[in-house]
Amino acid sequence: MTDKKLKNGKKASYRSKPCVLNHDDRGKALLDDEDESEEMPMKHIRCFALHQQDSPKSGESSSWRSYRQWRQERYNKSARLEKQLKVLEDQIDKQVKRFKTQYSRALNPTRPKDVAKLLAPSSTPPLELATLSWLGDWRPSSILGLLSSLTKSSPTLASSLTHAGATEKAISQLIHDLRIEEATVVKKILCQSDAAEFLVAFSGIQETVHQFSRDYKLRKGPVCVPLTSGSENVGADSAT
Amino acid sequence: MHVDRKKPPAAHRPFSDYYSDWITTMKTTHLPNLRLHMSSASPSLLSAHVEIIHHHFNSYYHTLDLAVSGDVSQILFPSGQRNAVELPFLWLGDLHPYVFTNLLRSYLHDPENEPENDPDPDRDPEYEDNQYDHQEHQEHEEDDEEIEVGESCEFLKKQWPLMNAWKIQSRKLTTRIDQIERGLRLMVPALMNRVRKAQAGFVQKVGSGEVTPAMAAAEMEEEMVGIVMDANRLRKDVISEIVSVTSVYQAALFLEGLAQFLVGIRDGKLLQEFKKCKSLIR
């Protein structure tokens, strides 16, 4: 009898699966296919046990309550995750938009006197400009070089790249080709989480280099030369 | 974090002060002296002053190398000692070497200086070079009587060699300028490529966490010092080549133009006008 019950239960559990999937989940459960495969048998067994109770109506109600609660939790989690992904996407878009704005024509120098500010912005310490800049801002190929080095060194970024080889190839090609639209490229070649991780690392390195360069300038003071250097200029005048 | 600004070490002065003094010496001493002797009839005295002003440039590049060893980043981005008019002309810390060759070309291509009779292309170059050789040209200056200027026209007599300096162009000169420009077309991109590689190395090291940013910057600085020194050597060599391949009058005019350019772009009045300039960049 017990064996029969179990057999029936097994059948019941398999039968219940379409019922689960057909429930009003709006397809959200598809996001967590792996979790579902692990959690479902336990729920199905519970479902079977309740079906076998003497008072089917109250048992069924309790089972469905628990099941609905579980579904609700899953739905809420999915909704939260979706919201977080949306926020992340918005943040990435915002960040990329900032780059686009920064490099857009509207911010380019319009008067001759602005050219010098563009080439050597006073807010950027000389060492930062020397190490990173090309015409006043990050050298485009350095951005992709940074992406390439992060891909190789960061375990999370490297492992999360589904097509690491293809990405690396794309980066190399872009380093070769690219001129100015690097910010857009980041979004084009990376998945959402990788793009976010890259932008965080990019901004972190930018800040680190900026801080370090600022301290360096303060520590170093103005660049000096020996007093005797150039004194021969005065001597040369005596020839007249 | 509070970091005290370091004072210049004893017997040292800021490079910006040195550069300011260097420009003042050029403006108040060397340039007037050169101009004075350009209008004198003595090529040997003029030659001495050409040499002095050339030496003034060389001593500047020597000092610039010393400053580069001190802090290459401040030389690469010299917002302290260079104004808004000067900055766009800079390449690796000083004038782009193309400025020198372009200046020379501007004299050669000036319609007023075009030779009256184009040399026969079939003429033997060696023969022509001999005709217009630097030294011989100086000797020709002694034969000013041959030019119909009249005894009373002393001023014109003195100015004649200078006025005709670019009309006497040897094939040797134009060939050498072509060679210098070809050399620059190879050297300039090679130096830029070294800068790009140095920056890429820095980003790669910092990005991968291989070394600290301070260590990566120190390694990069070492490379950049070499690059800027090589750029200085290139500039110095181009000026020296131009001076050696031109006649004394041509060299004097070239150095006068270069000195005037450096002095002129620091002129306060020009800077004010530049800052007020309303014309839009297209």
How does this model look, in words?
Chain A: Keywords: Coiled coil. Chain A: InterPro entries: OCM_Kinase (IPR053293), TGA_domain (IPR025422). Chain A: It comes from Mikania micrantha. The complex is a heterodimer of chains A (240) and B (282). Chain A is mainly alpha-helical and 240 residues long. Among the domains of chain A are: 66-111; 133-191. Chain A contains 11 helices and 3 strands; from the N terminus they run αααααββαααααβα. In chain A, helix 2 runs antiparallel to helix 3. Chain B has 282 residues and is mainly α. In chain B, 68% of the residues lie in helices and 2% in strands. Chain B has helices spanning 15-38, 43-70, 72-76, 97-108, 125-131, 134-141, 154-163, 171-208, 213-245, 248-264, 268-276, and strands at 12-14, 90-91, 94-95. The longest helix of chain B is centred in the C-terminal third of the chain and has 38 residues, at 171-208. The interface between A and B is large, with 60 and 72 residues. Strand 3 (224-226) of chain A pairs antiparallel with strand 1 of chain B, so a sheet runs across the interface.
